[in-house]
What does this fold into?
Amino acid sequence: MAVDFEKLKVLREKSGVSFAMCKKALIESDNDIEKAKVLLIKWGAEKMTEKSGRTTSQGGIFSYVHHNKKIASFVEILCETDFVSGNPEFQKTGAEFAMQLASMPATTVDEFMNQEYVRDPKKKIGDLFKEMAIKFGENIKISRILRWSLGE
It folds into this structure.
């Protein structure tokens, strides 16, 4: 079966996953973008499980201070390589996670991962996290979170 290259381009732009994986997903889904997205998520979850034992010694600490200067948050995200930790998409997602934590308090990583994403309530933070891990193909972890509120 031939791949619809316009759909391949759209899937690649939306998912950030490699062209090869997008092409494989489109072939297996008969060029159905929604079905291909589901396959990419499934394959990504399988890869994440395989990679979960790998050492995560790189990453970054992301912070957000609310405009009123009364709330601040920190999120530590670990990954395997400095190549990934320096990637602009990794940096952007880390900043989004810090903003999320300032907007919606959480005291544990599990609680944080189960929150609805403030920019898209159809997604949970855990979904965004999985998307990030799939894009980069590395073991990625949110290891610590901290939220401060003035006077607490």
